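A brief tutorial aside. Many learners find it easier to grasp structure tokens once they have seen a single protein encoded end to end. The record that follows does exactly this for Protein-export protein SecB. Read the sequence first, then the structure, and try to relate runs of similar tokens to stretches of the chain.
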Amino acid sequence: MAEENNQNAGANGQASGQQDKPQLQFALQRIYVKDLSFEAPNSPAIFQQPFKPKVGLDLNTTHQQVGEGLYEVVIKVTAQVTHSEEGTTSFLAEVEQAGLFRIGGIEGQQLDHTLGAFCPNVLFPYARECIDNLVNRGGFPPLMLAPVNFEAIYAQKKKREAEQAQASGEQATQ
């Protein structure tokens, strides 16, 4: 009888070694705007001249654990558009797009990668739409931000961290 139970457990994929593994869990709980700002400091004069924009974009991501298996990921997008010839600011639009993610069964480097690259990829389309809407409501032509490769940004960040760790390790040995 015991052999039969072990065979059934193996057939159901619940062998004793697999019961101990944590169940992978990833669920988007909520997407929300955490902070929003739009400034057009030179209006209405800016509308009196031809619109020749020069776009400056700043992008930052942060994350923090806010509960057991619950993480908040925030993308901060700042778009500053200046007149390409005069250098005067046409507008400044800023959004902090956030999301709550329930994540379980992922630890260490995989969790860091999920929070630093995968979650921002989920949130960025919402941030793009929010920036575009703000700019349009401010009376300017739409600002369609190009997609961002958060995988590449994450890889660059990890490379910089490794180089800094190596440099500080070399300085400590000297």
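Self-check: The chain has four helices and four strands. If you spotted this yourself, you are ready for the next section.
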